Amino acid sequence: MLSLLAFTPQLILSYPMLVPLHEQLLLLSEADILEPLSEEELVNFAKRNPDRRIQQGEFLYNQFDRAERLYIVKKGKIRIYKTNIDGDEITLAIATAGDVFGEMAFTSQQLREAHAMAIEPSMVVTLRREDLRELILSRPEVGLRLIERLSERLRLREVQLEDVTLKEVPARLASLILRVLDSEGVRTSEGYKIATHYTHEQLGTMIGARRVAVTRAFRVLRETGALEIRDRTIHVTSLEVLKKVAEQ
After folding, report:
1. What mean pLDDT is predicted for residues 176-189?
2. CATH value at residue 184
3. Phi and psi (nearest 5°) for 57?
4. Is 27 helix (H, G, I), strand (E, B) or coil?
5. Most CB atoms within 10 A, among 13, 106, 118, 200?
6. How far is CA 136 from the centre of its chain?
7. What is the rounded distance in angstroms from the CA atom of residue 224 to the CA atom of residue 219?
8. Which contiguous run of DSSP H or E holds residue 94?
9. What is the number of domains present in the chain?
10. Beta strands in 129-219 (DSSP E)
Protein backbone atom coordinates (compact mmCIF):
# COMPACT_ATOMS: atom_id res chain seq x y z
CA MET A 1 0.00 0.00 0.00
CA LEU A 2 1.41 3.40 -0.98
CA SER A 3 1.88 5.94 1.77
CA LEU A 4 1.21 9.13 -0.17
CA LEU A 5 1.94 11.29 2.88
CA ALA A 6 5.57 10.28 2.48
CA PHE A 7 5.92 12.48 -0.62
CA THR A 8 6.97 16.02 0.22
CA PRO A 9 5.56 19.10 -1.57
CA GLN A 10 9.08 19.84 -2.84
CA LEU A 11 9.23 16.45 -4.54
CA ILE A 12 5.86 16.94 -6.20
CA LEU A 13 6.73 20.45 -7.39
CA SER A 14 10.08 19.31 -8.74
CA TYR A 15 8.28 16.98 -11.15
CA PRO A 16 6.17 19.14 -13.47
CA MET A 17 3.31 17.08 -14.89
CA LEU A 18 -0.24 17.75 -15.93
CA VAL A 19 -1.32 15.02 -13.52
CA PRO A 20 -0.08 15.41 -9.90
CA LEU A 21 2.63 13.00 -8.87
CA HIS A 22 0.55 11.36 -6.14
CA GLU A 23 -2.12 10.54 -8.74
CA GLN A 24 0.56 9.22 -11.11
CA LEU A 25 1.76 6.84 -8.41
CA LEU A 26 -1.74 5.67 -7.56
CA LEU A 27 -2.35 4.86 -11.22
CA LEU A 28 0.99 3.07 -11.56
CA SER A 29 0.28 1.02 -8.44
CA GLU A 30 -2.69 -0.54 -10.28
CA ALA A 31 -0.22 -2.37 -12.53
CA ASP A 32 0.50 -5.75 -10.97
CA ILE A 33 3.99 -6.03 -12.44
CA LEU A 34 5.07 -2.81 -10.69
CA GLU A 35 3.87 -3.89 -7.25
CA PRO A 36 7.39 -5.02 -6.15
CA LEU A 37 8.71 -1.45 -6.58
CA SER A 38 9.22 0.76 -3.55
CA GLU A 39 7.74 4.27 -3.34
CA GLU A 40 11.08 5.77 -4.35
CA GLU A 41 11.41 3.37 -7.27
CA LEU A 42 7.88 4.22 -8.43
CA VAL A 43 8.75 7.92 -8.35
CA ASN A 44 11.86 7.29 -10.47
CA PHE A 45 9.83 5.10 -12.83
CA ALA A 46 7.23 7.85 -13.30
CA LYS A 47 9.94 10.42 -14.00
CA ARG A 48 11.71 8.26 -16.57
CA ASN A 49 8.55 7.04 -18.33
CA PRO A 50 6.14 9.92 -19.04
CA ASP A 51 2.51 9.33 -19.94
CA ARG A 52 1.11 9.21 -23.41
CA ARG A 53 -2.48 10.38 -23.78
CA ILE A 54 -4.61 8.86 -26.52
CA GLN A 55 -8.01 10.06 -27.62
CA GLN A 56 -10.88 7.74 -28.48
CA GLY A 57 -10.30 6.24 -31.92
CA GLU A 58 -6.60 7.13 -31.94
CA PHE A 59 -4.00 4.44 -32.62
CA LEU A 60 -1.29 3.66 -30.10
CA TYR A 61 0.40 1.64 -32.81
CA ASN A 62 -0.62 0.00 -36.08
CA GLN A 63 0.47 -2.84 -38.34
CA PHE A 64 3.37 -0.84 -39.76
CA ASP A 65 4.96 -0.13 -36.38
CA ARG A 66 8.09 -2.18 -35.79
CA ALA A 67 9.05 -0.84 -32.36
CA GLU A 68 9.74 -3.19 -29.48
CA ARG A 69 7.86 -1.70 -26.54
CA LEU A 70 5.87 -2.68 -23.49
CA TYR A 71 2.72 -0.73 -22.62
CA ILE A 72 1.03 -0.22 -19.24
CA VAL A 73 -2.51 1.17 -19.23
CA LYS A 74 -3.04 3.77 -16.50
CA LYS A 75 -6.51 4.95 -17.57
CA GLY A 76 -9.03 4.04 -20.23
CA LYS A 77 -9.29 1.04 -22.55
CA ILE A 78 -7.09 -0.07 -25.45
CA ARG A 79 -8.31 -2.58 -28.03
CA ILE A 80 -5.64 -4.84 -29.54
CA TYR A 81 -6.73 -6.47 -32.78
CA LYS A 82 -5.67 -7.91 -36.11
CA THR A 83 -7.26 -7.95 -39.56
CA ASN A 84 -7.54 -11.27 -41.41
CA ILE A 85 -7.15 -11.83 -45.13
CA ASP A 86 -10.87 -11.16 -45.66
CA GLY A 87 -10.57 -7.76 -43.99
CA ASP A 88 -12.45 -8.83 -40.85
CA GLU A 89 -11.16 -7.52 -37.55
CA ILE A 90 -10.33 -9.99 -34.77
CA THR A 91 -10.04 -8.55 -31.27
CA LEU A 92 -7.23 -10.18 -29.32
CA ALA A 93 -7.72 -8.29 -26.05
CA ILE A 94 -9.18 -5.22 -24.37
CA ALA A 95 -6.54 -3.73 -22.07
CA THR A 96 -7.87 -1.73 -19.11
CA ALA A 97 -6.26 0.13 -16.19
CA GLY A 98 -3.35 -1.86 -14.75
CA ASP A 99 -3.06 -4.17 -17.77
CA VAL A 100 0.22 -4.75 -19.59
CA PHE A 101 0.57 -5.61 -23.26
CA GLY A 102 3.21 -5.56 -25.98
CA GLU A 103 5.03 -8.72 -24.93
CA MET A 104 7.27 -8.40 -28.01
CA ALA A 105 9.41 -6.08 -25.89
CA PHE A 106 10.16 -9.07 -23.69
CA THR A 107 10.53 -11.68 -26.43
CA SER A 108 12.25 -9.46 -29.02
CA GLN A 109 9.40 -10.06 -31.48
CA GLN A 110 7.77 -7.46 -33.68
CA LEU A 111 4.14 -6.38 -33.55
CA ARG A 112 3.19 -8.81 -36.33
CA GLU A 113 0.44 -6.92 -38.06
CA ALA A 114 -1.35 -5.93 -34.84
CA HIS A 115 -3.19 -2.68 -34.13
CA ALA A 116 -3.83 -1.01 -30.78
CA MET A 117 -6.53 1.65 -30.65
CA ALA A 118 -8.14 3.54 -27.76
CA ILE A 119 -11.86 2.83 -27.42
CA GLU A 120 -12.12 5.64 -24.88
CA PRO A 121 -9.76 8.47 -23.82
CA SER A 122 -6.76 6.68 -22.36
CA MET A 123 -3.38 7.17 -20.71
CA VAL A 124 -0.51 4.71 -21.14
CA VAL A 125 3.12 4.38 -20.15
CA THR A 126 5.53 3.15 -22.81
CA LEU A 127 8.74 1.25 -22.04
CA ARG A 128 11.43 0.61 -24.60
CA ARG A 129 12.96 -2.85 -24.60
CA GLU A 130 16.21 -1.57 -23.10
CA ASP A 131 14.30 0.21 -20.31
CA LEU A 132 12.37 -2.95 -19.55
CA ARG A 133 15.58 -4.97 -19.49
CA GLU A 134 17.16 -2.54 -17.04
CA LEU A 135 14.08 -2.64 -14.81
CA ILE A 136 14.05 -6.45 -14.74
CA LEU A 137 17.79 -6.65 -14.01
CA SER A 138 17.38 -4.28 -11.07
CA ARG A 139 14.15 -5.88 -9.79
CA PRO A 140 13.85 -9.53 -10.96
CA GLU A 141 10.43 -9.74 -9.28
CA VAL A 142 9.09 -7.51 -12.07
CA GLY A 143 10.27 -10.02 -14.66
CA LEU A 144 8.57 -12.87 -12.80
CA ARG A 145 5.31 -10.91 -12.64
CA LEU A 146 5.57 -10.19 -16.35
CA ILE A 147 6.08 -13.88 -17.16
CA GLU A 148 2.99 -14.72 -15.09
CA ARG A 149 0.92 -12.13 -16.97
CA LEU A 150 2.09 -13.46 -20.34
CA SER A 151 1.23 -17.01 -19.27
CA GLU A 152 -2.27 -15.87 -18.31
CA ARG A 153 -2.59 -14.16 -21.69
CA LEU A 154 -1.64 -17.40 -23.44
CA ARG A 155 -4.23 -19.38 -21.44
CA LEU A 156 -6.89 -16.83 -22.33
CA ARG A 157 -6.04 -17.12 -26.03
CA GLU A 158 -6.36 -20.89 -25.77
CA VAL A 159 -9.81 -20.51 -24.17
CA GLN A 160 -10.86 -18.08 -26.91
CA LEU A 161 -9.67 -20.46 -29.63
CA GLU A 162 -11.51 -23.36 -28.00
CA ASP A 163 -14.71 -21.30 -27.80
CA VAL A 164 -14.57 -20.32 -31.47
CA THR A 165 -13.81 -23.89 -32.52
CA LEU A 166 -16.26 -25.83 -30.34
CA LYS A 167 -19.11 -23.54 -29.29
CA GLU A 168 -22.10 -21.97 -30.98
CA VAL A 169 -22.34 -18.18 -30.99
CA PRO A 170 -24.68 -17.85 -27.94
CA ALA A 171 -22.27 -19.92 -25.82
CA ARG A 172 -19.30 -17.90 -27.11
CA LEU A 173 -21.06 -14.65 -26.26
CA ALA A 174 -21.97 -15.93 -22.79
CA SER A 175 -18.33 -16.91 -22.16
CA LEU A 176 -17.14 -13.50 -23.29
CA ILE A 177 -19.62 -11.67 -21.06
CA LEU A 178 -18.43 -13.72 -18.09
CA ARG A 179 -14.82 -12.74 -18.81
CA VAL A 180 -15.73 -9.08 -19.17
CA LEU A 181 -17.72 -9.22 -15.94
CA ASP A 182 -14.62 -10.51 -14.18
CA SER A 183 -12.67 -7.36 -15.10
CA GLU A 184 -15.36 -4.71 -15.58
CA GLY A 185 -18.49 -5.99 -13.86
CA VAL A 186 -20.43 -3.68 -11.54
CA ARG A 187 -22.69 -5.13 -8.84
CA THR A 188 -26.31 -3.93 -8.95
CA SER A 189 -29.45 -4.62 -6.90
CA GLU A 190 -30.58 -7.08 -9.59
CA GLY A 191 -27.27 -8.72 -10.45
CA TYR A 192 -24.39 -7.29 -12.47
CA LYS A 193 -23.88 -4.91 -15.35
CA ILE A 194 -21.10 -4.01 -17.77
CA ALA A 195 -20.81 -0.24 -17.66
CA THR A 196 -18.84 0.01 -20.90
CA HIS A 197 -20.98 0.10 -24.03
CA TYR A 198 -19.72 -2.50 -26.51
CA THR A 199 -21.36 -2.55 -29.93
CA HIS A 200 -22.50 -5.85 -31.42
CA GLU A 201 -19.80 -5.44 -34.04
CA GLN A 202 -17.08 -5.03 -31.39
CA LEU A 203 -18.32 -8.07 -29.48
CA GLY A 204 -18.39 -10.03 -32.73
CA THR A 205 -14.68 -9.35 -33.31
CA MET A 206 -13.98 -10.84 -29.87
CA ILE A 207 -15.80 -14.14 -30.49
CA GLY A 208 -15.31 -14.61 -34.22
CA ALA A 209 -18.88 -13.88 -35.27
CA ARG A 210 -20.71 -11.44 -37.54
CA ARG A 211 -22.75 -8.62 -36.05
CA VAL A 212 -26.05 -10.20 -37.09
CA ALA A 213 -25.06 -13.46 -35.35
CA VAL A 214 -24.27 -11.52 -32.17
CA THR A 215 -27.69 -9.86 -32.34
CA ARG A 216 -29.35 -13.29 -32.59
CA ALA A 217 -27.21 -14.58 -29.72
CA PHE A 218 -28.34 -11.72 -27.49
CA ARG A 219 -31.92 -12.65 -28.28
CA VAL A 220 -31.22 -16.22 -27.12
CA LEU A 221 -29.58 -15.01 -23.89
CA ARG A 222 -32.52 -12.72 -23.15
CA GLU A 223 -34.99 -15.54 -23.74
CA THR A 224 -33.12 -17.78 -21.28
CA GLY A 225 -33.34 -15.06 -18.63
CA ALA A 226 -29.57 -14.69 -18.42
CA LEU A 227 -29.48 -10.98 -19.22
CA GLU A 228 -31.27 -7.87 -20.36
CA ILE A 229 -30.21 -4.87 -22.44
CA ARG A 230 -31.13 -1.50 -20.97
CA ASP A 231 -29.99 1.79 -22.47
CA ARG A 232 -27.51 -0.18 -24.61
CA THR A 233 -25.95 -1.62 -21.43
CA ILE A 234 -25.67 -5.35 -20.64
CA HIS A 235 -27.35 -6.30 -17.35
CA VAL A 236 -26.77 -9.86 -16.18
CA THR A 237 -29.87 -10.94 -14.29
CA SER A 238 -28.90 -14.59 -13.71
CA LEU A 239 -25.23 -15.48 -13.42
CA GLU A 240 -26.08 -19.17 -13.06
CA VAL A 241 -28.04 -19.27 -16.31
CA LEU A 242 -25.29 -17.35 -18.11
CA LYS A 243 -22.71 -19.89 -16.92
CA LYS A 244 -24.88 -22.79 -18.09
CA VAL A 245 -25.23 -21.29 -21.54
CA ALA A 246 -21.47 -20.68 -21.69
CA GLU A 247 -20.82 -24.37 -20.98
CA GLN A 248 -23.02 -25.61 -23.82
Report:
1. 88
2. 1.10.10.10
3. 85, -5
4. helix
5. 118
6. 22
7. 9
8. strand 89-95
9. 2
10. 185-187, 192-194
